[in-house]
Amino acid sequence: MGNRSRFIFVPDYTSHWQRAEKSVAEIQHQGIIDQELSGLRLDQALARLFADYSRSRLQAWIRDGRVEVDGEVRRPRDKVWAGERVLLQAVPETDQRCEPEDIPLHIVHKDEHILVIDKPAGLVVHPGAGNRTGTVQNALLHHDGDAAALPRAGIVHRLDKDTTGLMVVARSHVAHKHLVEALQARQIKREYLALVVGLPTAGGTVDAPIGRHPGRRVCMAVVQGGKHAVTHYRINERFRMHTLLDVQLETGRTHQIRVHMAHIHYPLVGDTVYGGRVKLPRDASQATVQALQQFPRQALHARRLSLNHPVTGEPLTWESPIPGDLARLIEQLRLDRAEHER
User: I need a surface site. Which of 38, 155, 273, 276 has the fewest CB within 10 A?
Assistant: First the structure.
């Protein structure tokens, strides 16, 4: 399967370590402009290449001379062309609006450079509209005072509020740089369990671009001109009207699994945004009806995370057990299947 990434990373490890001795707060990114970005303004191209940074911050860095294109400092409005090499010297800024909070975190791995947490349902990853407090980011700032020097306290990817499971967080600038690069190069393997409505006959791949929904701006959708998004899925277990899927992300767009599965008409159980009303098996028992109707969230769990350690290179894998609410629903669907096989 071809790599259609817009960004080609060209790590410079030697210079990174030399820079680290001068300023641990500085992170260097390098890349090459491809045909898709050719002809755009410099600030527009950088906003696509370095999506972890806001366009306003990137524009400020360009004006401060922290961006070079083929060795030259340019203006935000200057155009870039295919084949040109970009060098960005990024200086993360502390988010003064995010305060430390004593929120428990289930930590499954911790070392000098990374933290892996098992996120429960209901916990937002980072502050946003309507969620300024009570987030994973607030918790990280309380857990480790040094996290304030990292972008979003070291968060490099996110899970939806009601999605459970594993997340990796950077604890050092070196780790943050390499984790971001590994994510964009699709070198971090993220596997999920998803309980969906419907009975797909086999596994498959959804390759469909995702962007903002044209009529519902708080939602995402498969849209022409959206960001490249690929989701692989295979059947784990079938029930009478539902299917448990093993899902693997090749890309990491907002709501990707939820949007892609709804797009192919197998929405996640409990997903009121993309799934519509509850679907019930024919002649289901009251216990099964109640289990499905009262399931409080989208049935999605990030169960396995695999990566090479960003500093040592050691291959690492973590697994998270199925959370209790989802395990109980799956067991009820097994009982429903058994009752109707008699």
Answer: 276
